[in-house]
Amino acid sequence: MKKTFIACLVLCSTFALAQDRPPPPDGKGPPPGMEGKGPPGGEGKGPPDIAKLLNIDANRAEKVQAVLRASHEQRMALRDSAASADKGQQGDRSVMREKMRALRDDTHKKLAAILTADELKKLEANMPPPPRPPQG
User: Of the candidates 57, 89, 7, which has an alpha carbon nearest to the alpha carbon of residue 97?
Assistant: First the structure.
């Protein structure tokens, strides 16, 4: 009887600890306890401080941030439009890939107009890699 009770207690404790974190109240943003954390594998510092990373003035750093923000918003809009379209069509996937490639090239050109070649190379080396689409 005692062994059964202990086994049940251990099993229930395991299930209680394995529960996922609850979603945030408004459905947006990170779950509770994850605020201020960086991407998986990062140091939890969030995006790098462009001015310090590249040793540039605040004006140029703000221009770089604006380009990166706009690029991110455009990528999210493309992703959302692709998610709402019919899935499983190979033609849509190749169109999406071309749009993302064009957006990436456009972002690179805009950054190259603000930064020197060395600064751009350093920025690209410190940016997280783009997410890969799911396989399957």
Answer: 89
